[in-house]
Amino acid sequence: MAAKRTGEKYNAIIEAAVKVIAENGYHNSQVSKIAREAGVADGTIYLYFKNKEDLLISLFQVKMGDFTAGARKELNDMQNPFAKLAKLISLHFNLLEADRHLALVVQIQLRQSNASIREGIAAPLKKYFKIIEEIFNEGVRSNVFRQDINPKLARQMIFGTMDEVATSWVMSQRHYSLKDQIIPVYNLLAQALSAPDVKIEPFPVKYI
Amino acid sequence: MAAKRTGEKYNAIIEAAVKVIAENGYHNSQVSKIAREAGVADGTIYLYFKNKEDLLISLFQVKMGDFTAGARKELNDMQNPFAKLAKLISLHFNLLEADRHLALVVQIQLRQSNASIREGIAAPLKKYFKIIEEIFNEGVRSNVFRQDINPKLARQMIFGTMDEVATSWVMSQRHYSLKDQIIPVYNLLAQALSAPDVKIEPFPVKYI
Amino acid sequence: MAAKRTGEKYNAIIEAAVKVIAENGYHNSQVSKIAREAGVADGTIYLYFKNKEDLLISLFQVKMGDFTAGARKELNDMQNPFAKLAKLISLHFNLLEADRHLALVVQIQLRQSNASIREGIAAPLKKYFKIIEEIFNEGVRSNVFRQDINPKLARQMIFGTMDEVATSWVMSQRHYSLKDQIIPVYNLLAQALSAPDVKIEPFPVKYI
Amino acid sequence: MAAKRTGEKYNAIIEAAVKVIAENGYHNSQVSKIAREAGVADGTIYLYFKNKEDLLISLFQVKMGDFTAGARKELNDMQNPFAKLAKLISLHFNLLEADRHLALVVQIQLRQSNASIREGIAAPLKKYFKIIEEIFNEGVRSNVFRQDINPKLARQMIFGTMDEVATSWVMSQRHYSLKDQIIPVYNLLAQALSAPDVKIEPFPVKYI
DNA sequence: GATGAATGAGACTTCATTCAT
DNA sequence: TATGAATGAAGTCTCATTCAT
């Protein structure tokens, strides 16, 4: 009765949902379409997910969870806040460019979901926000970032800018490379956040 | 036969739609609900709008059109790019704070719409983007803004930051004042955009 | 309150209905379309007709009434049953060929109407049936038509044949002339109805 | 996704549609009524038919297809054109008399359908027309039918007469037997079509 | 008499979810 | 576990008719 949250088919359904939503749009992604793409029967979806909404929330949680976990792991080893900022932007844009379906779904389609889906999305998003704020706070503590910026506001600028750049790119039908935006965005944000007398570190080439 | 695009009822329906969507969410805003709120019969909606989608696009176009027209008018008289930036942020946040329904609809609900509605939204949004880019370009030309930032990227940072701050505020259920964010956001963006040796102008008090 | 059954606008509305139905089909002929074609307001229709159904029945009655009255008048002066049959076919096909809108409406569109309209149509149609039967009966009485055919059946063959030929012609989009069918149909029916030893009269040229 | 065109329910829905349309009239036969009569849910209709129109076209095609296939099979074994004509009339009238609902639907209700339904109906009707013309052509080739009648016109008379007789019978609410019309109609048409010196064959008793 | 904006009942269709197999 | 045919609630839109002006 309770939905199984693991298994081969669980993942197959999630991946199918990403593909179907990316290709058909949120409002044109029926359960039956996702089931067909996943190679299972309609009813099988309900063995793994409580309902369609649960599937969509799970989709975002899984994908976002993977991303934040990966990001945290990669960033943990690093010390320099500038390098961390560079790495974050690089990870963010590389992920989207590497998976066009995911990019479409995350930047556009999933924002068409309703309130309760958004609530389900809130938790993993907050974790990502926390990572961003931590990077900023470390920079403040080590006196390389400005003391006079509210951390939350800093996060809003960092995320808002990356998100807007990514959305523009997706909406442009990806006629240019998002990776090419990594260094410009880094330079812009590093400049904006760096403390008055601190020399901004150039983008570490290896993070592209 | 052709939908009437003006008149008392036209506006009443637009306002009713904003209210209903704000209170019920995009996916729970049926035509009949909007009609009831507007005090007209369901069929009357179709005398003024081709269909539900046309109503939603019109809603955004009217509201966004009013805003960009107003913004352009207010900004036209001004010379100083810093002052213009300050004014823009002030207008943006004041509009949303003044009309809580509109804020919800613009920041959250309308982003749940489908592809064709988004297309209808694109045009007025581009006009707003253009205003932002013009402000930045003027600042570059008068040597107060950095020469080494791509104008489109500058616009993405400005809009992305304002949008993210506004969305955070709406999602927080507006437990704090968005107006209080005007000066911090201005300081942050002005700092990010200002040319190396230019002294950032403090936020003009009268623009709050 | 009671519908006016005469007047300039009454006729204008009838003619407009014929045109609109011919051009748009029965199911796509809204009251508002007919009103626009007639150059009156929607509400005005209801000053002259009880409702849409009443308009359609009236349309058929007027047109069919004109036709039967005209036919009766023309046929009254004639004596010869063969000549009368020839004249009838000629009148029938000439009327349809002369008024393409009427042809479409009578042969195709009006048959899409519902039960109560068909009932309203029945009376004028019966009058036309009566004319046909009378021609046959005269032929029987004067021994030029077969005695062994039931008059009703004779009428059904005459009307059924003319009707099928006319329908075929209308459905063919009138790529050929219906008038060219007058003589062949006459020959066929005259042959079928003529008494064994009676020489069929050739089609009187003047009736084409 | 694609509509299933076979199965137990497919037939049940077709039969239900015939009954509902016969009893309520074309314009008063809602999908929900047909579904109820068939003992299925409204949505089930759409598993078997693309839409309401598709159901109506299918209905006619199935019924007409059955009839023409049956007629062709029965007529194939026969040689004598007179006998074939007799058989055709017998089949036509017997079918309608045996299934009062079908008679109502075919003779009256389905003619109320719109253009696209009529188009869907055209193909099976043409097949029936072809059968009729073939009978006539065989009679001409074997010198028992008149050489001077255009085959298409012959078909129009045959079909037009049978159709008018059937329509009269249906409209009369079937207060008499349509079968009783078989021999009179045969005699009338055989007389009309037979070559000058050919003795008309009496109606073969076994075909009643 | 004439208008035409407004009405609102009602029809078709979709699709998330269920459940017998 | 898995299936997929069946369900039926619910939403958008049309259009004949009305009635205040």
UniProtKB/TrEMBL annotation, chains A, B, C, D:
One of its GO terms (molecular function) is transcription cis-regulatory region binding. Residues 30-49 bind DNA. It holds the Pfam family TetR_C_4. Residues 7-67 form the HTH tetR-type domain. It comes from the Bacteria. Keywords: DNA-binding. SUPFAM superfamilies: Homeodomain-like (SSF46689), Tetracyclin repressor-like, C-terminal domain (SSF48498). PROSITE patterns: HTH_TETR_2 (PS50977). PANTHER family: FATTY ACID METABOLISM REGULATOR PROTEIN, HTH-TYPE TRANSCRIPTIONAL REGULATOR RUTR. This is Transcriptional regulator, TetR family. The lineage of its organism: Bacteria, Bacillati, Bacillota, Clostridia, Eubacteriales.
